[in-house]
Structures are given as C-alpha cells and as structure tokens.
Amino acid sequence: MSYGVLGSRAGHLLVETLRGAGTSRSDVALQAFLLARGPVWVQGRLTLTSLHATFVPHRVGAGAGTLTLDLVDVAGVELGGGVVQRSVGLRTATHVARFRCLGAPALAEQAARAVDAARRTSRKR
What we know:
single chain, alpha+beta, seven-stranded antiparallel beta sheet, 2 helices, 7 strands, 27% helix, 38% strand, globular
C-alpha cells in the first residue's frame, strides 16, 4: 500500500460535535482542535493520503495546530451544498469535520475511496 498524497486543497475547516466525546484517536484530535479554536472556520490546507486526512492551519490560524484523522475512524464522507465553494464532511462517531474548498466534489470522491480502502486494509489485519 502506498502512503503518497492522494489530494491536497487549500480552504477552511470547521469542526462540529455531534454527541459527547469519542474514544478514537480521531475523535480525541477533533475535540482538542475544537477546544483550541472553537466552532469557527479555520483557514489552512487539507492533505489526503491513503491512511490519513491532515489539516495544517495557515499562519493566521496556527494557534490550532495540525489535525490528523485516521481514515479508518471516518464513518462517512458527505458533500455539502454551495454555489462556488462546497464542503466535504468527514464524519466520525462523535464529530464532523467540514472542509470548504474549490473542487470539493472531486475531493469528496477521493476521500470516500480512501476511506473504503483503509477499512478494507484494516479488516485484513
């Protein structure tokens, strides 16, 4: 399995809590990001690999630190509405990370394929 970059986009990230605090590494990371920044859109870059989705805030939003989600923890990928910029939602057990960017439909397809592949690989172990 290759760990190379599948896609990378500049945009804005918003983390929402759906219910309580989760126990997976991704939910813990999302909760820490939310506590550091609050429920606001943070500008930065999302990079998708075959195992992780990593968000690095730009300098203006650097107080939040890097956020890394394990794709095996992602329960679903959603495509939000919009005219120019749409959002890609990465849903875990207790959070959803919404990333608003140009080219969101293609990024959502890449993310969905990567999540499926990561799940298949983790089941084989």
